[in-house]
Amino acid sequence: MPVLRLPGAHGMREPMKPQGSHGIHVVAENRRARHDYEILERIEAGLELRGTEVKSLRQGQVSLAGSYATVENGEAWLLDCHIAPYSCGNIHNHEPKRPRRLLLHRREILRLETRIRQRGFTAIPLRVYFRRGRAKVELGIARGRERTDRREMLKRREADREASRALAAARRR
Predict the structure, then answer these.
(1) Residue 128 pLDDT > 90, yes or no?
(2) 3-state secondary structure of 165
(3) pTM greater than the 0.70 cutoff
C-alpha cells in the first residue's frame, strides 16, 4: 500500500502558489516609498542571493525600509535591505544587511547611473517578489517629496474620496 505524504510534512515543501499575474509571488512591498517619493520610472532587476537568503525570502523575512540602490564600478548594488537570518540555518547563515548585487544588463546599469547622478533623484526598491522562481526587485527612480507636497497630496486624495462618496450616494437615490 502506498504511503500518503502530506505537503509540509516530513521535509516536503508546499509549492508556492503564484499570486497576481505572470506567476508573480510578492514577498514585500515598500508602501512608505509611494508616500515619501514621487516615482518617475520603474526598473525590474534580479537579486544575487545566497542559499539561506532565498529561504528566508520565501518565508517573507525581508524589510525594505531605508534601503536604496546605487552604482559602483559599473555594478548595481542594493544597500541596507534587511533579510533576516534563516531560522533553520547554521554557522553559514548570511549577514542580514549585506550589500546585494543587482542583476541588470549593462545599458540598464548605465541608464540607472545617469538617472541617480542627476540632482534630487534616487533609486529605491518598491517591492521584492519571485517571478518563475527567481528573486526580483522592482526599483523606482524617485524624487523626494517635500512635506508640503505630501500634505497637498493627502488633501487631494481626501477630496477625491468625498467626491466619489457623493456620486455613489447620488446614484443610490
Answers:
(1) yes
(2) helix
(3) yes
